[in-house]
Amino acid sequence: MTINFNNIYIKEKNVVGGPYIIDGPLSKYLDYKFYDFYDGEKTSEDCEIKELRKSISLIKNKYDLVISSDLGNQLMVSNVVNDKINKPYIGIYNACASYTAGLFLAASILQNKNINDILVTTSSHNLTAERQYRNPIEYGAPKKEYQTFTVTSATSTLVSKDKTNIKIECATIGTVVDLGIKDSNDMGSAMAPAAAKTLYDHLIDTKRNINYYDLILTGDLGKYGKEIFKEYMKKEYNINLKKYNDSGVLVYDMKNKDVCAGGSGVSCLPTYFLTLLYSELEKKKKKKILLLATGALLSTTSVNQKKTIPCICHAISVERV
User: Fold this and answer.
1) Multiple choice CATH, 166-320, 3.90.1300.10, 3.40.50.300, 3.30.390.50, 3.40.47.40
2) Is-contact 176 213, C-beta < 8 A?
3) How far apart are the first and last CA of the chain?
4) How far does CA 101 lie from the centroid of its chain?
5) How does pLDDT run across 126-179, given as a tens digit for each residue?
6) Which candidate, 126, 122, 53, 56, places its Cα nearest to that of 94?
7) How many C-beta atoms surround the C-beta of residue 132 within 10 A?
8) Model-wide pTM > 0.85
9) Angle at the Cα of 100 (from 282 to 250), degrees rounded to 5?
C-alpha cells in the first residue's frame, strides 16, 4: 500500500551520537556528542533517556505532537522522556522500522488542517539492547561475525506543512514476512526478504523504475544482510540493485572489528540519513532517496521460546525540491 503526500516537509532535524558513532564517518555531522555508554548516569537506560532529552531540547521550532520510538520494553525511554514534555504523544513500535513508520504517521496526521508540526524521535543504546535481547556485556559472551552492533544515538525530525527544500513525497506500508529464522543474532538475514517485498511493492504501486532514485537505503541489514537483500531482489524480482547501500555498514568505521557486521537499532537509519545523507540532499548531490527501514519483530519472550522472527519494512520517499 503506497500513499502520496501533498506538501509535507522536513523542517528541522538533529542527531545526538555516542560511542563508536563519534569515531566513525558521521562524526563531523553530529549535533551533539557523548563519549561513553553511561555519560554520568548509573544505567544505560538512564543514558538513553538523557540522549533523547538532549536531542529534543535541540529542536528550536514549536510542534503540536510527538511521535516517539525506541527498543525498550513498553517504550520505556520514550514514555519517561515525554512525561516531561507536556505535548500530545504517540509511542510506536515497529522495531527498527519505527522511524519510517513515524514519518508516515506524521505525514498522514498533517493532512489535518488543525496540525502544522509534528516531532518524530528515535533512540537506541547498545548496552540497553544487548541486555534485553542477548546478554549483558558484563557476561563477556563472544559475538558472532554476522551479529550487528546496536547504534547508540538519538534523533529528532520535525515534520511540517511549512515548505522547505526536503519533501516527504510518499510512503509504502510494508507487510510482515517470516522466513522461519530463529537466531536473534542473525537479524540481517531475517529482515532482508521484508525489505525486498516492500521495495518491489513500492515500485509496482508507483510505476517507477529502480533507477528513479539516486539512492535506495535500507535500515540495518548489516554487511551480510545487505548482500542477501541484493541477491534476493535479483532472484525473486529480477531487479539488479546498483544505487543501493545499507545504513548499518555506513554509520561506523567498518575497520573496527568490535562492530561485527555493522550497525542496527531504531536510530541506525535516521542517524545516517539526518547527517551525511541529509547534507548531500542540501548540497544537491542527491535529489531522490528511498528510505527502507527494516525491523525484526521479536521480543524477549519470543527469543527465549525459540520462536521464528517475523519482520517488517516501511518505505519513505524523500525528495529535494
Assistant:
1) 3.40.47.40
2) no
3) 24
4) 9
5) 998 887 766 666 555 667 777 888 999 999 999 999 999 999 999 999 999 998
6) 122
7) 16
8) yes
9) 60
